[in-house]
Structures are given as C-alpha cells and as structure tokens.
Amino acid sequence: MGNGGYHMVALLVGVAVGLAGVAFHLGVEGLTAAWPALLRDTLGLSGTALYSAAALVAATMAIASLFLVRRFAPEAGGSGVPEIEGAMEGLREVRWKRVLPVKFVAGLLSLSSGMVLGREGPTIHIGASIAKAAADLTRMSSEDMRGLLAAGGAAGLAAAFNAPLAAVLFVIEETRRQFPYSARTYVGVILASLASAVITEWLTGNVPYMLLPASAMPLTALPAFLLLGMLLGATGVGFNRTLVWSLDHVRRLGLATTFYLFPLLIGLIVGPLIFLLPEATQGGEVLAVQLATENRPLAVLAVIVLIRFVMTMASYSTGVAGGIFAPILALATTIGLTFGTALENVVPLPESTHLALAIAAMGGLFAATIGAPLVGMVLVMELTGAYSLLVPVMLTTIVSNMVAQRLGGRPIYEILLERTLAIEAAGQPTPRRRFRLRRPRSDLTGLAAPDTVPPKPQQ
C-alpha cells in the first residue's frame, strides 16, 4: 500500500473513531443522568427507598459490565491502553470483532453506574480496535498495522478529551519503543487525531472539556509550584503502589469467592453515594471544574481527596471496563486545591493561586503516575485552556516526574505488564515474584499490559 492509500485509511479511521468516541461520550452522559432522574423524579423515590434502589441499579450495572468482559472479551477489562501497547509490542492480539461491542457496552454500563472511572481508556481501546479492523480489511503489513493501531489509539484520546495535540504526543512519548517510526506512520497518527478532533468539535463544540479561566502567575509564586511538584511526585508513587496492591488483593478475593463479589459491593456503595456524596463518584471532569471555582474549606477538600483516592482504587480493581486518566486528573485538582488552601494559612498567596495550583497539579500527578510528562503538560493546556499557566504547569510536571523517578517510581503500565507476565508465567492466582522486562537503560516510559487478568472463559 502506497503512502496515499495508507494516509487515506488513517484519515477514515480517525473519522470513524471520532463518531464512535462522541457516541460513547454522549451515551455515558445520558445514561449517567437518566437513571438517577428516573428514580428520584419520575418514580418519586426518596430517603431509604431511593438509596436502596440506587444501590441495586448501580450494582446491577457493575455486574453486567464485568459479565460481558469475562464472558465474551477478557481483554476488554480495565482501561484498554495496556492492551494496545502490548499489541504494538507483539505481546497481545487485538480481537476487534469482540472487543468493539464489549468495550462499548461494558464501558457504558460501568461508567454510568457512578464508579470512579474515565472514558478515555475505553475510547482509546475502541479507536485502536477500529484501526485493527481497517488494517485487516486492507491486508496491511505488520509494520503498517502497528502504526495504524497507534493512530487509532491517538484518535480515541483526541475524541475523549478533544485534545488532538496531546493525542499525537501520547504516541511519541508513551509508545516510542513500540511505534514503527516512519514518515507515513507519523503522518498517519496526525491525520487520524486531526480527523477525530474535527468530528468531535463538529458534534460537541470547540470548547475545552475542563475550561478553567486562569490568569498568569508572578514569578514569585513559582516556589509554591515547585513544592507542589515534589508532593505530587511522592503521591504518584504511592498511587501506583496502592493500585497494584488493590488489584492483587481483589484478585485473591475473587479466586477465593467469586470475581463478581467485589463489583457487587462497590456498586451497592456507589449507588447511594450518587445522591449522598456525588464528589465520591464518576470520572471527575465536572467535579474538577466545580471544585476549582468554589472556595471549600480545607477539611472538606482533604476529605474529598481521601474519598476520591479510595474510590479510584476500589473502582479500578473491579475489573470492569473503564479508564484511569480522568480519575487521576480529578484527584490531582483536589490535591492542588488542598495544598493551596493549606499553604495560604502559612504565607500570603497571589490572587487566583488556588486555581493555578489545581491546574498545574493535573500535569504533575499525570507525569508521576503515567510517566509521560510532556503529554501531561500539553493535555492540561488543551483540557483547561489555561495557556497563561504554561510555565507553572511545566515546572510542576517535570519536578513531579523527577521526584517520582528518584523515589523508585515507575510508569503504571510497566508495572501492570510485569504483574500480568508474572501471573501468567508462574501460573499462580497471585504473583509470587516481580518479573522485570529487559529494556534499554535509556527507556523511561513503561510498556502497558491488561489492567486485570481474569481467567479465560471456558471453551
């Protein structure tokens, strides 16, 4: 296939991913709002009856999501980003015929149940699956197929966050070891991301998803962002280690009982929280904007940080379809606000510093957990539109990434891959040892793997 043909396929993939991404986004928003309104407004439930019904609905959606994953497409569990990077490495196979419907429907159910999960992971997985379908239909070579997988994943990220530049950089920084660099594949990634962004803006509008009006910070405020970066670096390392700990323990529970028990419990908890404490539910994009524009007390912010942290671990460990980018960004925003509020009690801060710290914290925690500081910087800019804060965001993000590396932190997808390989190699229900991949010392970015490894369904 010539360059023109390849680029045309990449462009069409971007269009298809944009349409699928918008459909998924609108579907999640619609269902998330519909069922609570049905219980409270249409049926007129209140008090104990409302909370009980909400618990049952959320638990049913969580169980249904996990059933679809475990029964029809085990690789559709979790975010899907590890699956794509694993496929580009040659360690996974993208079975698009089963992944596409399962990821879409299972992701719709899990995200709409109220669990703390993001839509960007499923959208990236859906995008790469569409790309694999196109590669199969056009009988592409292995190298072109790998390039098109990256293009489809980038288009998915562009559709999820309306962030085409961050999507292109995600391929450059996150998959630099796996991506087959050439002029045609690189242009293909750009064309797919651009086409997806055009479709997304055409159908949903050209407005940043987390628009936060922020003013420039004086240079005298930069030490605060330096301290925030150090805090987020340590937090990111703790986040990754806690996530793996949660996955291991939930897996042990599932093997000892049933893999549906934990999602059932989380659904029963999340349902009532949608009405009682909405800050503890859902991906968090709307929450981040809401908190950043309010002046909540320090104690309240600290409680929200703790609850969001716990609910992110619990939701992601269930094994249902759902991403982690959005929960990380929402958690980071709350940490930034908490840090700013606490710091203000010690030293005077310039006006709007709280908002600036909240925005910069998104890039910092992203860099410390995902291990992609450049993507974190650009993603924050495209999400919030706060380009006047570029220098504070860059400082916070790179310091956070440096501290995370200094503390021995590693990208979460690399950790998850080694966990998966250890389980499969040892044939044990839980990892007995840590399996380390051999890779060049210069490689600082992780390789992804499935978020959970449920047993294969019976043939």
From TrEMBL:
* Segments passing through the bilayer: 7-28, 48-69, 148-172, 184-204, 216-239, 259-277, 298-318, 324-343, 355-380, 386-404
Which keywords has UniProt assigned to this entry? Chloride, Ion transport, Membrane, Transmembrane, Transmembrane helix, Transport
- Pfam families, per the entry: Voltage_CLC
Q: Which InterPro entries match?
A: Cl-channel_core, ClC
Q: Where is this region: Disordered?
A: 439-459
**Where in the cell does this protein reside?**
Membrane
Give the record's GO CC terms. plasma membrane
| Highest rank taxon of the organism | Bacteria
Task: Name the membrane topology term.
Answer: Multi-pass membrane protein
Matching Gene3D superfamilies, A to Z?
Clc chloride channel
Molecular function as annotated in GO: voltage-gated chloride channel activity
**Record-given protein name:** H(+)/Cl(-) exchange transporter ClcA
Gene from which the chain derives: clcA
